[in-house]
Each structure stands twice: as C-alpha cells, then as structure tokens.
Amino acid sequence: MAMAALRREGRRFAAPLISNNPINPFRSSFAPAEEQALLGVRSISTQIVRNRMRSVKNIQKITKAMKMVAASKLRAIQTRAENSRGLWQPFTALLGDTPSVDVKKNVIVTITSDKGLCGGINSTSVKISRGLRKLNSGPDQESKYVILGEKAKAQLVRDSKKHIELIITELQKNPLNYTQVSVLADDILKNVEYDALRIVFNKFQSVVSFLPTTATVLSPEVVEREAESGGKLGELDSYEIEGGETKSEVLQNLTEFQFSCVMFNAVLENACSEQGARMSAMDSSSRNAGDMLDRLTLAYNRTRQASITTELIEIISGASALQG
Amino acid sequence: MIRRASTGLLSRSIVAGVHHRHFSSTEVPGADELFMMAWKRIMPNLDPPKTPLAFTRLRPSSISAADIASKLTVNLVSPYSEFSNREVDMVIVPATTGQMGILPGHMASISELKPGVLTIHDENDVIKYFISSGFAFIHSNSVADIMATEAVPIEKVDPASVQNRLVEFNQKLSSASTDLEKAEAQIGVDVLVALNSALSE
C-alpha cells in the first residue's frame, strides 16, 4: 500500500522529468527527435522497436515462402534438365568443344533470368560474356551479343548497346520445351551472322553450386576449315556422310541441330540454377531476418526494463526528496 | 550396308603440320588449356568458365580394326529422355537413304534420319521406337549415338488418332497456298505416313 501511494505520488513528478536515456546499442539507429516527440516519456522507443520487429517478421515470412516456391519449381525442372543432359554429349564426342577457336565473327549468347532475387548468377554470366568478348577482340574480329533474359539486358545495355544483336525476354512464361527452344534457335541462326556461337549459362551442379559454363558451336564453314587443319575435328573426314545430300548441307543441318540441342540444355540448366540460387538467397535472407529479430527482441526487452527502472528511480527519488 | 572399320582411320590422326596451328591439338583435354591460359591473361580476377569437355562422359577410345567389340553400344538421346550405354547386337535406323542396319564394327558415319521406326535388337528382344527425324553418329569404336527430336515407344502410339491426323494433314496439303504452308503440311503427311506404316508392321 505504501508502494501504491509512492507510485501515485511519483507519477505526478514523472511527466516533466526526462528520463535518463538507457545505454542502448540500437539507440543510434532511432532518430532521437522521434522518440521524444511521439509518445510520451515512458514508452519512448519500445513502440519503434515493436514496429521494426513486426516488419522484420513479415519479411522473414515472405522470404520463407519464396524459398518454398523456388524449391518446388526446382524440383519440377530438375528432372527435365537431367534428362536433357545426354543431348549434347554425342556432339561433343564427335566435334569436340573448342573455346579457343579463332574466328572472325563471334556471337555470344548470354542466358540469364528475367526475375531477380536470385543471388549473383546473372552478374557472373554477364562478367563472363564480357570476358569472352575481350578474349575475342582482335584486329579483324568482332563479337556480338544475343541476350536471353531481362537481367543481362539491364546490365549489357548500359555499356555495350551497339554490340547487341537480339534481345529475347519472357522465356519462361510457358514451361520450357524443345519446340520453343528450337524455334528460338532458328530465329537466332537466321538473323545473326556467325562463325562461332558461344553460349554462356550457369550449369546446375547441385542446389548450392552453379558453375558458369560456356559451350561453343561452330558454323559449318568453320567446322570444315578446322577439319582440314587436323586435331579433334580432323577425324571428321573419316566419317562417311549418309544423307543423300552434299556434305556441306549435312554439316549445316548438323550444326543447326547441335545449336538447338545445346541451347535447350543450357536454358534448362540455367533455369534450375536460377531456382537453386533463389532458394539459397531467400534462405540466407530469412536466416538473417531471424537474427535481426533476435537482436531486436533483446533490445526491446532491454528498453522495456530500462524504462521500468527509470520509472522506479523517479518514484524513489521523488519519495526520498519528500522525506527530506 | 555392313562395312568393317577401315585401318585408314588411324593414319588420319597423325597430321604432320609444318607449322604449329593453334587449334590442332592431339588430345581432347588439351584444347581447353589454350582457352584457360588466354582467359587468365585477360581476366585474371575471374575464374574461367567451364566447358562441355569438363562434363562429357567417358567413352571407349578408338580402337584398331583388329579389335572389334562384340556388342554395339547404343545411346539414344532425345530432349526429354536418354538411354545410354545399352549394349545391343544390332540397331536399324531409318536414315534418309533408307533403313540402315548397324552392327558392331560398322564404319564411322554420320547419317541424317527421317521419321520412321528405330529397331533395337538385343539377344532376342526387339524394341521399337518411333523417331521423328534426327541424326545418327556411328563411331569406329562400335558406339552409336542416335539423336532424335522425339522418340516414343511404338506401344504408346494411338492408331486412331494417327488416322485422323493423316486425313487432316492431307486436307491441309491440298488446300495449302504458300510454299511454307505446303512444306509444313508435307512434313506432317510424311511423319504420319511413316507412323501409319510403323503401326501396321
């Protein structure tokens, strides 16, 4: 009962008093003017901390949901990507892969995603494309870009605008299938002159590991040229061409088929990598939000206790002042 | 069309170049090194990208004529599925020049395929697939790669719908006006006729 009386007395004195600001590591992040102006002396910054906690919790929920969505999309597309892996193996077995080939017209096909929040895979692809361009920039060499996906477009339009031939976006609006990719490949082959096509994508190795890869497809003329110079392609001449047409026509069909097969696999692998990268990005984001929430909870409790202590101090000092 | 691998194959890989051509490499992994070196020079801070060579599955190496495998290793791949490294006795592919039989020790060849039936003979099993065009590579080490845009087992094809579509495409062919439409309708008719004959076998 005495305490209650003291408390009542204390309240009359507390209002004009400005409480000692408790030592609080989060203090600096809150605007000091805000606290004092807003809500009265006692619950100075608990309200602000509570607001922050609520928004961080919401963000955590959103990122967790995005991770689940990405996981389910990954499951759906992973089996298809793995099934398509056998498609380009025979071509590499026959024609080899020669990224160091020296040709005049290089076309760099960069495959990226349309949506963001997927970690650093798109930036890696763009950096590699730029690197390939630098690698193949000789006196009579030129390199052009064919861009698949919004993210590469945003990055490459800034500094290489005049080297971009084609931009294709919204690839994943409908589920990926070979017909769509082969039409796309046909489009690219028709509109772009090339001696070598270098496809840059992220190969899906596992849910946490994506390897930037580049596959090289040569045009039929270059294949013939390299076949004559020997090496891996030199064995090409020993293969009997059974097509009923001339060797160059068959070679042309072959390289076009190779391009569409490699593109199909590349697009699927990149989609898998995108979902996997998004999963891990959202996972680390929700973990981070959880950490922030823990820290904020501690800060909240500390602030709350500090304000209670302050209140008690006011009461007691007021009471002892009265006693004299 | 059964031919034996020629011994001339080996002599081709020893090319006596007068000056070093930067592309000619004697072995497959070597081609990557030039690329790696050039990359490291130009972009030292970024790891070089991987190339398909790093992911290719191992294949039996080219062997001489005297040492012919007893079974054919066949890889049937399509964008949606693959059967790899099946050891079989014989494969019959529908090449554009007609049905072609492939036995172990067949000469190296690249052939275009037209829509038709692919038959795989394994001991006494006969498995039939319908493939809608593609390519077949036969290597000298008795490995055959068959790449098809679509490969379906014959059992899964529905005869009634084949007939309906055939009628439909024949109509389209007769009413086609532009070359493109004619070509498309012709392709449809070809595939469906082949399907029809495959089903009736």
Descriptive overview:
Chain A: One of its GO terms (cellular component) is proton-transporting ATP synthase complex. Chain A: It is a peripheral membrane protein. Chain A: Its main location: mitochondrion. The complex is a heterodimer of chains A (324) and B (201). In chain A, helix 3 (46-83) packs antiparallel against helix 9. In chain A, strands 3-2-1-4-5 form a 5-stranded mixed β-sheet, with helices on both faces. Chain A is 59% helix and 13% strand. Chain A is built from 9 helices and 6 strands. Chain A has 324 residues and is α/β, with parallel strands linked by helices. Chain B has helices at residues 8-12, 30-42, 159-174, 179-200; strands spanning 72-78, 81-88, 90-95, 98-102, 109-113, 116-122, 125-131, 134-139, 143-148, 151-153. In chain B, the strands form 2 sheets. In chain B, strands 2-1-9-8-5 form a 5-stranded mixed β-sheet, with no helix packed on it. Chain B is globular, with a radius of gyration of 22 Å. The two termini of chain B are 22 Å apart.
Short description:
Chain A: It is found in: Mitochondrion inner membrane. Chain A contains 9 helices and 6 strands.
List the helices and strands and how they pair.
The complex is a heterodimer of chains A (324) and B (201).
Chain A: H1 2-14, H2 32-38, H3 46-83, H4 89-95, E1 105-111, H5 121-135, E2 142-148, H6 150-159, E3 164-168, H7 178-191, E4 196-206, E5 209-218, H8 220-229, E6 240-242, H9 247-323
Parallel strand pairs in A: 1-2, 1-4, 2-3
Antiparallel strand pairs in A: 4-5
Chain B: H1 8-12, H2 30-42, E1 72-78, E2 81-88, E3 90-95, E4 98-102, E5 109-113, E6 116-122, E7 125-131, E8 134-139, E9 143-148, E10 151-153, H3 159-174, H4 179-200
Parallel strand pairs in B: 1-9
Antiparallel strand pairs in B: 1-2, 3-4, 3-6, 5-8, 6-7, 7-10, 8-9
Keywords (chain A): ATP synthesis, CF(1), Hydrogen ion transport, Ion transport, Membrane, Mitochondrion, Mitochondrion inner membrane, Transit peptide, Transport
Organism (chain A): Olea europaea subsp. europaea
Membrane topology (chain A): Peripheral membrane protein
